[in-house]
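Quick note —
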Amino acid sequence: MSEGFGRAPKAGNRAYAGELGVRSTRRSELRDITAEVQKAVKASGIASGVCHLYVPHTTAGIVINEHDDPAVARDIVAVLERLAPREAHYEHYEGNADAHAKAALAGASATIFVEGGRLDLGRWQGIFFCEFDGPRERRVRLKIVPDPAE
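Predicted structure written out below.
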């Protein structure tokens, strides 16, 4: 996973913007990117605010779910495969219609509160990049916005 975050906040604009590079290794997989996102939050210097994540791809997505047990991510991939199997009749001609359907179910964005300079995730929660048409090089865009000054 390459890290491309680091566009420093501009004068008068304390928001921090950046990008994470993700290289998938299978056609469908969930990759835990929690540590990389936390690293960006730390680099931003923002103690309290929100972290917005956006995946600019039509066959990939992002979800927040349990990351303590890796079987959960594999189970999610298996459920999505049953809901939108690769070998089904689809009208989309490129052969990846199932990937588009799975990405639509996962969603393209997530927002996480930042408190004390850390992602405010639940005890078992992690952030997963969802690949449904890999292996590929992908991007996750992020913007960390501070709470308004009081």
